[in-house]
Design a protein that fits this description.
With 246 residues, this protein is mainly alpha-helical. It has helices at residues 27-50, 54-73, 75-88, 91-109, 112-136, 158-176, 181-204, 210-231. Helix content is 68%, strand content 0%. The protein is globular and about 55 Å long. The termini are far apart.
Amino acid sequence: MRDRPTAPTPPPSPGFPPPPSSGPPPAHRTAARAAVVLGVCAVLLLVLVAVRWHPLLALDDGIARATHLWAVRDRAVTRAFRVLTDWVWDPLTMRLVCAAAAGWLVWRRAAWWTALWLAGTVALAAIVQQSVKAAVGRPRPVWPDPVDSAHYAAFPSGHALTATVVCGLLLWLLRRSGAGRALWRTAVAAAVVSVAGVGVTRVWLGVHWASDVLGGWLLGALLVALAVLVYERPRNRPEDPGGRHG
C-alpha cells in the first residue's frame, strides 16, 4: 500500500493568539512582577519609619542595644567590621567596581548602551538614597561609648542600598551573558556575603537601625528590578553583554 501524503499543517487563523508557550516568562515580565512586590514592601517600610510606628522602633532599639554591647565587648570583631565597611563594602568601592565593569564592557564588548545603563543605574541609586534620607530625616542611633560614626540621616542605609544595586546588576549581567557554572556560583556567593555582610556591619557598628538596612536592601532590589525592566523592554538593542551585537 502506498503511504498517503501528509496534509500540511494549516496556518493559524488570523485574529487568534498563538498557543501559550510552556517556557519561562520573559525577563521583563519577571522584572515587572518583582518591581511591584518590592515597591509595595519598600513603601510600606518607609511609611512605618516616617510615622515612627512604635513596634518597629522598639524592635530596632532592642537589636541596636544588643549588637552595641557585643561591639563594645569584642573589639577585634569591631575593628574587622570597620575595615570591611569602610574599605571593602564602602559605597565608593562598590561604585568603582561598577565603573570597572562598565569600562570592561566598552573595551572588550563595545557595549556602550549596557555600560551607560549600568553606570546610570548606580548613579540613580545614589540620588534616590540621598533624596529619601533627606525626606525622612531619621536620626541615627546615639551611644555614650560609640565604636564608629557616620554622617547624614539614617534611613535608608546607603551602604546596603549601594551594595544591593551593584551586586544585583553585575549578577544579572553575568547570568545574561551565559557565565560558566563555577564563575556563577563564585559570583553569587560573593554577592550574598557582600550584601548581607554590609548590613550586619552597619548595625553592629551602631550607625544604623536594623530597619535602615532592610530599607536599603528593599530599595536597592527595587532599583535593580526597574533597571532590568528598562533593559529588557521590547526594542531593538544595538548590543548586549553577551556579544558585540545583539
